[in-house]
Known about the structure:
Blueprint: E1 2-7, E2 12-15, E3 18-19, H1 24-34, E4 38-42, H2 43-48, E5 59-63, E6 73-76, H3 79-85, E7 94-96, H4 100-106, E8 112-118, E9 126-127, E10 136-141, E11 145-147, E12 150-159
The structure holds NADP nicotinamide-adenine-dinucleotide phosphate.
Amino acid sequence: MNLIVAIDKNNGIGKNGDLLCHLSADLKHFKEVTTGKTVVMGYNTLISLPKSAPLKNRRNVVLYEKDIEIEGAEVCHSIEELFELIKDVPEDEVFVIGGAMVYTTLMPYCKKLYITHIDKAFDADRFLPEIKKEEWKVLDESEVMEENSLQFKYVTYGRKDI
Ligand SMILES: NC(=O)c1ccc[n+]([C@@H]2O[C@H](COP(=O)([O-])OP(=O)(O)OC[C@H]3O[C@@H](n4cnc5c(N)ncnc54)[C@H](OP(=O)(O)O)[C@@H]3O)[C@@H](O)[C@H]2O)c1
């Protein structure tokens, strides 16, 4: 599986249940990368989406301990249940899309990381685990872009051991 996230200079990803900033180019990039794929998210991230609704044109899987029905999404109550559900989906078609709790649990299973690096330190309360240099190598790196006075770039990392 893969992971996609926007992080600040301190690996911050969110605050008070929301993103740290809104970059329309990054949201477009996220849509391009994930459309047609399976996206895996925690319940808090689902709630943070517009209308707290699953994403269109993607297979949505939500991790949540409680037994609820979510229209347009499949609910998994554990990592074991998740792996059973996606066992026939090609690995590169699964994207972990947050939040912090789910990134922390699933990052060890990811082969590629699609990171938007935002060149600013925000006041965050949720973080991505460290991207360790001994574990990850840069596969691809965009030029630096700017929107709303924020500089950012897209970097794809791959596991060093594969
Ligand atoms: N920068 C980005 O690209 C980005 C992307 C996504 C999200 N975010 C931000 O991240 C923040 C949300 O992150 P978060 O850590 O609070 O929440 P989260 O990871 O989205 O969701 C956590 C919830 O998911 C459920 N869950 C997680 N792992 C589970 C498992 N293994 N089995 C069963 N249920 C599981 C838990 O439900 P239970 O309560 O039932 O245990 C938990 O309360 C928000 O601020 C959001 O804006 C940022």
